[in-house]
């Protein structure tokens, strides 16, 4: 899993470089920038999803709910 996350992070870095290069052009292409930013966002979301803990603690009722029972 670590290798996969590293690969996703590297791809995100490469997309950021492409975004920076597009901004550096005399007339940046808005469509290209939009597409690159969407790719970068999808990569970020995928990375964050994989970094989330797989197991969550069991549901615990709040103290107020226990008093009502």
Short recap of the structure:
With 69 residues, the protein is mostly helical. The chain has helices at residues 2-24, 30-51, 63-68. The longest helix is centred in the first third of the chain and has 23 residues, at 2-24.
What does this structure look like?
The protein is about 75% helix and about 0% strand. It is elongated, with a radius of gyration of 20 Å. It has helices spanning about 1-25, 30-50, 65-69. It contains three helices and no strands. The termini are far apart. The chain has one domain. It is mainly alpha-helical.
- Classify the secondary structure makeup into a structural class: mainly alpha
Rg value: 20 Å
* Mean pLDDT, all residues: 88
Estimate what percentage of residues fall within beta strands: under 5%
Query: Care to count the β-strands?
Result: 0
Biggest sheet features = none
Write the layout of secondary structure elements.
Blueprint: H1 2-24, H2 30-51, H3 63-68
Helix pairs in contact: 1-2
């Amino acid at each position: 899993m670590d290798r996969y996350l590293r690969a996703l992070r590297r791809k995100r870095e490469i997309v950021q470089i492409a975004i920076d290069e597009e901004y550096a052009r005399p007339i940046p292409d808005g469509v290209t920038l939009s597409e690159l930013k969407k790719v970068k966002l999808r990569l970020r979301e995928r990375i964050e999803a994989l970094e989330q803990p797989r197991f969550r603690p069991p549901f615990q009722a709040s103290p107020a709910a226990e008093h009502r029972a």
